[in-house]
């Protein structure tokens, strides 16, 4: 039986997770949703733990921090992507320091989202020692969306921090010009 890539969405709001679910399914990733940290923990410790976990920043019985901690203690490697409503550099840095794979703020273009997702998938497959890592995506050297595989999570977060810092700089510059 061939292993299928799966993602668990932990949220209590229908959006943006509904859009992210559709984007994941368009990338042939099976999805499941739960609404609480407790349900996430049960799934992480279940028979078939997910490869990815997309966690909302706010949950009824906890937060993204609880989910990241649960994933770190799970029996199988899981990469967590924290989903925020707002761009928040301090939160982004905290999320990465606490062990999440990445931090996203929808809406995102499908190619950007696919890059984050497949970078996380490659990394978790490598950490699990999965034979899927050597399957078609890794062998061809290219994904359906034209991006190249990333076998480490070190580039995506750094790239995002640089982009966020550039955005903050440009906004500050804009404010300075318009305040004069």
Write structural notes for this entry.
The chain has 180 residues and is an alpha/beta fold. It has one domain: Rossmann fold (3-Layer(aba) Sandwich), CATH 3.40.50. The protein contains seven helices and seven strands; from the N terminus they run βαβαβββαβαβααα. The chain has helices at residues 17-26, 37-44, 64-73, 89-97, 110-128, 136-140, 155-179; strands at 6-10, 30-34, 52-56, 58-59, 62-63, 79-83, 102-104. A five-stranded parallel sheet has the order 2-1-3-6-7, with helices on both faces. Residues 138-143 and 145-155 have low confidence and may be disordered.
Summed up, what is this model?
The chain is of the alpha/beta class and 180 residues long.
As for the number of domains, it is 1
What is the C-alpha radius of gyration, as a whole number of Å?
Answer: 17 Å
If you consult CATH, what is the topology? Rossmann fold
Count of helical regions: 7
> H/E order of the elements?
EHEHEEEHEHEHHH
CATH domain class: Alpha Beta
| Overall pLDDT confidence | 84
CATH superfamily: Response regulator
CA(first)-CA(last) distance? 66 Å
């Amino acid at each position: 039986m061939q292993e299928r890539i799966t993602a668990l969405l932990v949220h209590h709001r229908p959006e943006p997770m509904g859009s992210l679910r559709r984007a994941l399914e368009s990338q042939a990733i099976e999805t499941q949703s739960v609404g609480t940290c407790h349900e996430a923990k049960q799934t992480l410790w279940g028979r078939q733990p997910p490869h990815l976990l997309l966690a909302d920043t706010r949950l009824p019985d906890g937060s993204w921090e609880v989910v990241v901690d649960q994933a770190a203690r799970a029996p199988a490697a899981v990469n967590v992507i924290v989903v925020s409503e707002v761009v928040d550099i301090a939160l982004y840095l905290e999320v990465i320091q606490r062990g999440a794979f990445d931090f996203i703020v929808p809406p995102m273009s499908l190619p950007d989202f696919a890059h984050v997702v497949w970078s996380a998938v490659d990394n978790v497959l490598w950490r699990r020692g999965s034979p899927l890592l050597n399957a078609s995506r890794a062998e061809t050297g290219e994904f359906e969306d034209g991006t190249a595989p990333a076998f480490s999570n070190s580039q995506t977060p750094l790239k995002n921090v640089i982009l966020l810092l550039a955005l903050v700089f440009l906004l500050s510059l804009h404010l300075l010009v318009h305040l004069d």
